[in-house]
Every structure is written in structure tokens, then in C-alpha cells.
Design a protein that fits this description.
The complex is a heterodimer of chains A (63) and B (328). Chain A has 63 residues and is an alpha+beta fold. Chain A has one domain. Chain A is 17% helix and 32% strand. Chain A has a three-stranded antiparallel beta sheet, with no helix packed on it. In chain A, strand 2 and strand 3 form a beta hairpin. With 328 residues, chain B is an alpha/beta fold. Chain B has a five-stranded parallel beta sheet. Chain B is globular, with a radius of gyration of 21 Å. The longest helix of chain B is centred in the first third of the chain and has 15 residues. In chain B, helix 1 runs antiparallel to helix 2 and helix 3 crosses helix 11. Chain B contains 15 helices and five strands. Classes of the chains: A alpha+beta (63), B alpha/beta (328).
Chain lengths: 63, 328
Amino acid sequence: MANVILDPITRIEGHLGIELETDGSNVVTSVQAQGQMFRGFELILKNRNPRDAVILTQRICGV
Amino acid sequence: MNISRRQFLKYCTAAAGAIGLSTTDLVKLEKAFALEGGLNVTWVNGQACTGCTVTLANSMYYSTVQELLALGQASTSVDLNYIETLMAAMSNEATQNSEVTASPFVLALEGAIPSSGYCTVGTWTGAASEDIGDVVTMLANHANCIAVLGIGTCACFGGIPAARGNVTGAKGLESHLGNALYRSKVINIPGCPPNPNWIVGTIAYVIATGHLPSVDSLRRPRDFYGERICNNCDRFAYSKAQGQTLGFIQNSAPNDIGDPAANIPGAKCLKKVGCKGSRTKSDCSLRKWHSNAPLTTGVNWCVGAGAPCQGCTQKNFPDRFSPFQYIR
């Protein structure tokens, strides 16, 4: 039984952490992935001029 | 399995054909990202879109850093010890690598800093995944940290994550670090994203001179953010020469909006469709973007391509300039 935490995962865009458990023969029995960053783009877009969405939403991901 | 950066570059070489890199590009990439002995840069990501990492990667076209700034000083290298999106190491192997803080380093922050729980970046000193704010505070206060660079408008002033409707408590370095630390160590390089030359040029300046560059009231290097966009804008100059400073609408023709291929003469000022150049300081209009060779200006820039300036290098972007199409 081993508990392995991979946090942060690199070479991806954004923040990701993985926590997994293995059994005695190194077989993965359970995995949990977390997206670790939240900005709330939907809430920031509320009550704005619709044309602003073009300029704001292009900044969701820069890769 | 451990993969060193050098091995990673070997993988890049093997895959170069597939991803469209030339041999020269790879040599330069290796120089910029893998040479030991340069100034250490630790690059951490907060609430970011990673666009600033991508813009940094664009600087691989330059063979040396000092030519970006025309410093005329000896060449030196930038050693990225920690950069999540590009480095091979991950997990605690990366965050608890003693090399990161063992010698003098520059801390580069990309993205805004939210309240606890909205952005965690692995275990640096504690037991659980830590908030970006704690990691930035820890690194910025480290005795070996010689400068803190705010990369992009989010890191400097909060940017889009800190815009109206922000529920995460996002803010920039200015509000996060104490005033004394902010005034002594921080250099802001705003932009959405910033031009790669602004980033590497600032790092090159710190390496070459050993001190921070001259900054304006927003702590931006004067070399790059010294003048208003309009001062060197070809559209503004043309419209002014025609006696129509706001000439976009009066005599409308397709070329007025701007054909990137036509690149300027005859293209008019975009103020009436919401250009914020008059309230924005940067050298975009001179330096331009996507330069494909050292010491040459870039291919084009927002206003050159007919897209009104959005004011992305200014504090309080986007709220101060929104709605973007309005003349204000």
C-alpha cells in the first residue's frame, strides 16, 4: 500500500495535482485529480457589455 | 523516472521536425533554458492563463539577451530553475529542489494571487499543497531573492482575475507584498501578455548591471513603458497629418480599419472605435511583436492589424477600459 502525491504536474497548462493509492502489487486502486486554480470568469463576465466577452474570454487560456 | 532538462531538450530535438523547430532554434532554446551558470530565475504561476510563459518562449528567437535591450554588455544566460509549464521535474522533486533558492535568484510571478484555497501550487515547505500567496511571500522574502518580477498585468495589478465580479480575492503583487518589499524588490512588467523582449530585457538588465532598472510610478521599467502608444503610432501620425486626429469614421474605406498587409500608410486613427492608446504606455508601436530575427522590429502589433489598443499594460485593466468599444 502506498499513497503517492504528484503535485504540481508540470508541462501542462494550468495547475493540476494527482493523488493516488496503490495496493501491495503496485496496482493503482484509487486516483483523485484536482484542478487547483479558479478565477471565476463566468462571474467576471456578468453585467458587462456582451462585446467585452471577446476580449476577456480569450484570456482563459494563453497556450 | 527522472528526466533532466538536458534530456528534455534531447526529446525536443527528436521531435523538432514534428513541431516545426529548426536546428538553430533548438540551439538557442538550449542556450536560453539550459545553460548552467547564468542568473537563476524561479517562475511561479498563480491565477494565470500561461500566456506569459508562451510569450517568454517566443524569445528563443534571440541569440543573446543583451541585444533585446541593446545594452552593449557581455552576453550572459538565464537559467530557469523552476517553471511549471516547461520543466521536466514535477511534484516535490521540483518544489523542494534546494537549487531553487541556493544561490541568488529572480522570482518571476505569472498570474494573480487569490485568497486561500483558490490556487495551490504544491508542497514547498509544509505538508499539504500551499497557496500561491504563501509561496510568493516565502520566496520574495528569501535572502537570496534579488528581485521580484511581476510578469503580466495579473501578477502586477490583478488583471482580469481581479476585475469586477472577482470572487476569489485576486490581487497583484502591489497589494500582496508589503510596501517596503514592493518598493525595494518588485519590477512590474505588465501586458496581456507582455512582449518577450520586456521580460528578457529586464532580466538581462538586472544581470548586466546588478541593480533594478529605472521605473515609473507603476514600477514599470521606463525603457519599455516610457511613452504613450499614440506618440509613435503610424495611424495617429497619418490622421493628424490629414487634419483628422479622430479620422476613422469621417472618410471610411476598407483600409481605414486596417489591412495588416497594407501595414499603415493610409490607415487612420482608431480612437473612434475605442482605441485606448492615448491612455496606455508601452513601446508596442515601435518594438512590435513576433520578431523573427534578432535586432529587427516585429511583424505587426494590435493597432497595426486594426485592433484598437485595449490598454493592457495599465493598472486596472480591464475595468478602467471596459466596455472596450466605447470612446472614453
